[in-house]
Amino acid sequence: MAASARPQRRADAAEKQAGAGLHELGIMFNIVSTVENFARANGVAVIDTLVLQVGELSPVVPQYLHACYPAAVDGTLLQDTQLKIEMVPGNVRCEDCGATYNLLQEQRVCPQCCGQRYAILSGREFLIKEIVAR
Ligand SMILES: [Zn+2]
Asked: Domains of the chain (ranges plus CATH)?
């Protein structure tokens, strides 16, 4: 049986995946400590749900946030808190004709004049939208 190359390759893939989420893990730790501080300052003992808002055009990947969430809340006040992520559409205004459109849906080209110059109206958000206390 000479199948030793395969497990090694799989391990490399796993490492790459973990690396891709490191950015989000750091962000998640920051959010958790921000929420913990807020809860303590306001006498909140149990948080039912944490709602984050993520813009389509922000560099943060929601699935990585979900993936690293359990590790980030382990042993904190948010240990049993549910994570909810709301997406904000990436809307822009065409700088040539003034039309507004969704940047990703239209593949970065204005559907009215085919212009490619735009100003971002929404979609860069990354914020804590809501903390639902029990
Ligand atoms: Zn246009």
From this structure: 2-133 (3.30.2320.80)
